Amino acid sequence: MILIVDDDLAIRTSLALLLKKEGFRVMGASSPVETFDVLRQHTPELILLDLNFSIETSGREGMHLLDQIREAYSAIPVILITGWGSIDLAVQGMKKGARDFITKPWQNDHLVQSVRTILNLSQPVVSSPERQKLQEKYQFQYIVGQDPKLLDILQTIGRVAPTDAPVLITGESGTGKELIAEAIHLNSRRKSKPFVKVNLGGISATLFESELFGHVRGAFTDAKTDRIGRFELANRGSIFLDEIGELDLSSQVKLLRVLQERSFEPLGSSKSRTVDVRIICATNRNLEEMVAKGTFREDLYYRINLISVKLPSLRERPDDIPLLAEFFMNNLKEIYHRPALQLSPKAVQWLKTLPLPGNIRQLKNLVERTVLLSGQDRLEVKDFQINLTANTSSAPRSLPEVGTLTLEEMEYHMIQRAMDFHQNKVAKVARSLGITRFALYRRLEKYGISYDADDV
């Protein structure tokens, strides 16, 4: 049963009709006193709470009622209802324990999604997950590891994926945030729809609107044709906003509007377009600290942070290093047609001693570089030592410094060797080096390495 708390009979009636149509049982209350009369007799699964009562528009009465509900009935989740202009108040309510907030005028689909999401997430959690059981239930084939911290995360995303809850994935660079985002999409009801990835760190503030929301012909000097933005491409699917901590404040406001209203206007157009997307964000920055410093909007933080998943660094799960190294090696056997490739037991144990500040991405790069530059099929410790980067922080302290090349010289030689090996196929080179094609293009231009723009 869902309890609707609002002094406006028309709003209670409208919400009741909507929720009953979706199969929910509904009760209503028009005041704080009536709310507790209902709560003493019934235990709702969820409460929809309006922040303003009668002529009171400051929200203080609603916030006081939220405090009372949280104190007496803390197990009942609460969704706040407020006007767009009172989002700051809703954020304060989230800090007090509300699970989500909906702005007026609401969109029916969005409100129902929020209700279903909160109810699904309120179900009890099964303890002690096992990798095999998780694998049988969910699609996690691209995520390697058996560490208990990782298994807890997989269980969480398995439960969250079927909902439309926004998910914030945090963790150091190279910990696999994109893989987790893809797993959320693959295990959702949207899996047959688009999964659109956006690296916000690579989009300038001037191009933000055009990239995410599209533009119409003539919107600016070089806008020769209409362009569809990333949000429209992701309609009915999921959008992965990577490096969200890199957004400037003006872009944060524009993003918040879209997430809140589920609509946007392409640059140069006055016609709004609605969009239905699942939001998944990721960052390696501390957004809470950024909020405290005023560099990240608090209301946006709470909008994207209904569910937060923090990925452990590789040094926190060292027993997974052999599994990951073997996984990468098996992939390289197929990619390079070298079926005899293998890691020696000593090499595997040695890899576990590395700090690996670049985490999984760094381990993958190290394994592939060693395969590329070593003529041996059985890789020993010395093969990896030779191919460590000039950044000696990656090596155990007991090892001598490797080579006399600078980091830039090492990078240049690695890219050149990879380009020769992959016959200048940019996509394959970028994948083998563990970087994006755009990042590879920048380095190719930086070092003056030629490539065929049509052969990607």
Please tell me the overall pLDDT. 85
Work out the helix count: 20
- The counted number of beta strands is 16
CATH superfamily of the largest domain: P-loop containing nucleotide triphosphate hydrolases
Instruction: Give the helix proportion (percent range).
Output: 40-55%
Shape: globular
* Count of domains: 3
CATH topology of the largest domain: Rossmann fold
Low-confidence stretches: 389-404
The rounded Rg comes to 26 Å
Strand adjacency order, main sheet: 2-1-3-4-5
Structural class: alpha/beta
CATH class of the largest domain: Alpha Beta
Strand content: 5-15%
Per CATH, the architecture of the largest domain is 3-Layer(aba) Sandwich
Q: What summary fits the major beta sheet?
A: 5 strands, parallel
Distance between the termini: 55 Å
Keywords: ATP-binding, Nucleotide-binding, Phosphoprotein, Transcription, Transcription regulation
Domain Sigma-54 factor interaction: 143-372
Organism: Siphonobacter curvatus
GO biological process, one term: phosphorelay signal transduction system
Task: Describe the protein's architecture and organization.
Residues 1-119 form the Response regulatory domain. One of its GO terms (biological process) is regulation of DNA-templated transcription. The modification 4-aspartylphosphate is found at residue 50. Keywords: ATP-binding, Nucleotide-binding, Phosphoprotein, Transcription, Transcription regulation. Residues 143-372 form the Sigma-54 factor interaction domain. By secondary structure, the chain is α/β, with parallel strands linked by helices. It has 3 domains: 2-121, Response regulator (Rossmann fold), CATH 3.40.50; 131-312, Rossmann fold (3-Layer(aba) Sandwich), CATH 3.40.50; 315-447, no CATH class. 45% of the residues lie in helices and 13% in strands. It contains 20 helices and 16 strands. It has helices at residues 9-21, 32-41, 60-72, 87-95, 108-121, 131-137, 148-160, 177-186, 208-213, 230-233, 249-261, 287-293, 298-304, 321-335, 345-351, 359-373, 381-386, 407-421, 426-433, 437-447; strands at 2-5, 26-29, 46-50, 78-83, 100-104, 167-170, 195-199, 214-215, 227-228, 238-242, 263-264, 273-274, 278-283, 307-310, 342-343, 378-379. Strands 2-1-3-4-5 form a 5-stranded parallel sheet, with helices on both faces. Helix 1 links the parallel strand 1 (2-5) and strand 2. Helix 18 crosses helix 19. The relative contact order is 0.07.
